[in-house]
């Protein structure tokens, strides 16, 4: 079983839609969690860290549920520029990042 | 401020040849990581340097891979001899020392072994 599991998608949504991505992880010792964004043929870039209390950055909201080992990302009012692959990532105790396979989002006009 | 840079951006080699990838981290970043994404798979950790020391090399696939970071600045990753299954995108990332520091990724080197 993979340490980080994501639905690969693609999620195909119209502009302005709200879309939610989910991710589950194993190994509850993991300390830190992130969402990274990766555009086609580009490097991953940090979108936001994920905290148990939930955190919001503009149109993006991330949530961590440690009891269920579940992470979510909500994107409101989707823009064309949001089209990308969203990577669910955890950091283990030795600081290495463990990636999910990514969820692809396509926002159409 | 310059980001993480990697060279070359692409490399096409034949099975059995040697390839050396280079990563220049962000200036002042003690932590340097190598990751790899092979076709159809998720990005996977290879190894972690703290300055010039290998902190964790648990992700290195086998002894055909050799990473160095002499002087604690740039790093090289050599594959010798290359095999077909080594094809993929090799990413380098760097971060400041300390906990909860963001890892910044380079653009990657796309390696194709024929």
Query: What's the number of helices of chain A?
Result: 0
Percent of residues in beta strands of chain A? over 45%
Count every helix of chain B, treating DSSP H or I runs of 4 or more residues as helices.
0
- Residue stretches of chain B low in confidence (pLDDT < 50, at least 5 long) are none
Distance between the termini of chain A: 37 Å
Quaternary state of this entry equals: heterodimer
List the uncertain runs of chain A. Answer: none
Largest sheet of chain A: 6 strands, mixed
Strand content of chain B: over 45%
Through-space gap between termini of chain B: 37 Å
Radius of gyration of chain B from CA coordinates: 13 Å
| Helical residues, percent of chain A | under 10%
In N-to-C order, the SSE pattern of chain A is: EEEEEEEEEEE
Output the radius of gyration of chain A: 13 Å
Task: Report the principal-axis shape of chain B.
Answer: globular
Q: Give the overall average pLDDT of chain B.
A: 94
Let me know the number of strands of chain B.
11
List the main descriptive attributes of the protein structure presented here:
heterodimer, A: 109 residues, mainly beta, 6-stranded mixed β-sheet, 5-stranded antiparallel β-sheet, B: 114 residues, 7-stranded mixed β-sheet, 4-stranded antiparallel β-sheet, 11 strands
Could you explain how this protein is built, in words?
The complex is a heterodimer of chains A (109) and B (114). By secondary structure, chain A is mainly beta. Chain A has no helices and eleven strands. Chain A has strands spanning 4-6, 11-14, 19-25, 32-38, 44-50, 55-57, 60-65, 70-75, 84-91, 97-99, 103-108. In chain A, strands 2, 4, 5, 9, 10 and 11 form a six-stranded mixed β-sheet that branches. Chain A has a five-stranded antiparallel β-sheet with strand order 1-3-8-7-6, with no helix packed on it. In chain A, a hairpin with a 5-residue loop joins strand 9 (84-91) and strand 10. Chain A is globular. The mean pLDDT of chain A is 92. With 114 residues, chain B is mainly beta. Chain B is built from no helices and eleven strands. In chain B, the strands form two sheets. In chain B, strands 2, 4, 5, 6, 9, 10 and 11 form a seven-stranded mixed β-sheet that branches. A four-stranded antiparallel β-sheet of chain B has the order 1-3-8-7, with no helix packed on it. Chain B is globular and about 40 Å long. The mean pLDDT of chain B is 94. Chains A and B meet through strand 5 and strand 10 of A and strand 4, strand 5, strand 9 and strand 10 of B.
């Amino acid at each position: 079983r993979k340490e980080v599991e994501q639905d690969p998608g693609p999620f195909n949504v119209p502009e302005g839609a709200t879309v939610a991505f989910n991710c589950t992880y194993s190994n509850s010792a993991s300390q830190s969690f992130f969402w990274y964004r990766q555009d086609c043929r580009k490097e991953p870039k940090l979108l936001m860290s994920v905290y148990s209390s939930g955190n919001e950055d503009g149109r993006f909201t991330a949530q961590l549920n440690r009891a269920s080992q579940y992470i979510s990302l909500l994107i409101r009012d989707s823009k064309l520029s949001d089209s990308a692959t969203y990577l669910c990532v955890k950091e283990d105790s030795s600081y290495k990042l463990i990636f999910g396979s990514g969820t692809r989002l396509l926002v159409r006009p | 401020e310059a980001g993480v840079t990697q060279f070359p951006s692409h490399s096409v080699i034949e099975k059995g040849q040697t390839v050396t990838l280079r990563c220049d981290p962000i200036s002042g970043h003690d932590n340097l990581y190598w990751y790899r994404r092979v076709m159809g798979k998720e990005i996977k950790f290879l190894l972690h340097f703290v300055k010039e020391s290998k902190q964790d090399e648990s992700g290195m696939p086998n002894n055909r891979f050799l990473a160095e970071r002499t002087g604690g600045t740039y790093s090289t990753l050599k594959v010798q001899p290359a095999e077909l299954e080594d094809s993929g995108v090799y990413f380098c990332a760097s971060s400041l020392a300390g906990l909860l520091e963001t890892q910044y990724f380079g653009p990657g080197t796309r390696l194709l072994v024929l």
